[in-house]
What we know:
Elements: H1 2-10, H2 12-18, H3 21-38, H4 40-43, H5 84-120, H6 122-136, H7 140-154, H8 160-172, H9 179-193, H10 197-204, H11 209-246, H12 257-265, H13 274-300
Helix pairs in contact: 1-2, 3-5, 3-13, 5-6, 5-8, 5-9, 5-11, 5-12, 5-13, 7-8, 9-11, 10-11, 11-12, 11-13, 12-13
Amino acid sequence: MKKLLARWLDSDVGYSFRHSPVAILAAVIAFICIFCSVFAGWIAPHNPFDLATLELSDASLPPAWSAGGTTKYLLGTDDQGRDILSALMYGARISLIVGAASVVLSMLIGVVLGLISGFAGNWIDAFLMRLCDVVASFPAILVALLIAGVGRALFPDSHEGVAFGVLILSIALAGSAGWVQYARTVRGSTLVERNKEYVQAARVTGVAPLRIMLRHVLPNVMGPVMVLATIQVATAIITEATLSFLGVGVPPTSPSLGTLISIGNKYLFAGEWWITIFPGLMLVLIALSVNLLGDWLRDALNPRLR
């Protein structure tokens, strides 16, 4: 592990990372958020979703530094007495899982369709690109709302796993924010790669087209895909938070950051600002750090900027 880390730090990408204070700061923030969310069950002061531990007498307490606050709840509590700090850790975990899973699914769909479109060409390329144009013409949030709403209507009493699956699918298929960008990116790179000498040599030697796509073309088009996937994680998390804020996201029993913001929004004008402000800040920190890392990775993988 140490050798791999040392080798990466000595590479061109590692050198770029070591000399980019913005990338280092973004990586630290992202690591802290991910670490706290993954290990929330061990490091969170309370379990905010265990009804047996909630005390209504502790409801709507302000942060510890405000008048009436207590060090037991550093960031205060919500209307049900749930610790805001603990809720942030648990909520961020759900947002990260849904965001990462939807990006993986949309990347798989987009990469496969982009490879087929760029390598096959002819009517297949025309059909798939027109399909991308049609899907991209709809607002991403509208498509996600439609799929999530239909899923809720078809499975009203479904298990949480089904609800999460519908949500992940809705984000992955959400117009230009989902698989379309991957398909277009991979298609453009494949059009360039398929005319190069190594692909022509593989064709002459009788290598099957599927093997050429997977063995030769795919590794050479994954650079832009990885950059796009990094940036899309932040977009997926924000989309999930938007859906949860509108009430068609994750189940109420497993609230994410969007659900916490929605709950706190009801009490914002009553002076209980901390219920919605802190989840909002957590969402901004995660999205900003991931976007900054994506920008750095794009520049680091661009040979023209070295």
